[in-house]
Design brief:
It comes from Pseudictyota dubia. InterPro entries: NAD(P)-bd_dom (IPR016040), NAD(P)-bd_dom_sf (IPR036291), SARED1-like (IPR044163). This is NAD(P)-binding domain-containing protein. One of its GO terms (molecular function) is oxidoreductase activity. The chain has 153 residues and is α/β, with parallel strands linked by helices. It has one domain (3-138): Rossmann fold (3-Layer(aba) Sandwich). Helix content is 25%, strand content 20%. The chain is built from 4 helices and 8 strands, in the order H-E-E-E-H-E-E-E-E-H-E-H. It has helices spanning 3-6, 42-56, 96-108, 133-138, and strands at 9-12, 30-31, 37-38, 60-65, 67-69, 78-81, 93-95, 115-121. Strands 1-4-8-6 form a 4-stranded mixed sheet, with helices on both faces. A two-stranded antiparallel ribbon has the order 2-3. A two-stranded parallel sheet has the order 5-7. Strand 2 (30-31) and strand 3 (37-38) form a beta hairpin. The protein starts with a helix and ends in a 15-residue tail after the last helix. 25% of the residues are buried.
Length: 153
Amino acid sequence: KSMSDSVHVVLCSSKGGTNPENMLNRFGKETLEDGTTRGGDILKWKRKAEKYLIDLGLPYTIVHPGGLINEPGRERELCFGVDDINSLTENNNVPREDVAEVMVQALKHEEYKGRSFDLVSKPAGEGTATTDFIALLAALGGKDCDYSLGEIA
């Protein structure tokens, strides 16, 4: 039995990777006297790791959550999108518990293999709490994140 038959890597990354100017890329970055930069670029490095995982050929699921919030899970409608675009809500955050639940569901359902997507939730009280994780994925219509967008360090 090969390793790819028994492994399914589920990676929690970050939303925002298509925008090189995202504020997360500025943390720890300094401009040197010669104009070059050092440090920072966390989303670029995360995106590079994601692309590396994809290129390995192992079964994977990559989740890009929006801003993480410390509120109870299983109470909100979850929304998947790709490439930092989500037409279902303007909200850009998601409870940590819901991120963990999506990652567990990815391990339970074959349909999640080979997929990469963004995850946010509708605000509390708006929509219906997500319980059907196959329908949630199907709503993407087969779309996945496009790794030709953004910069890879």
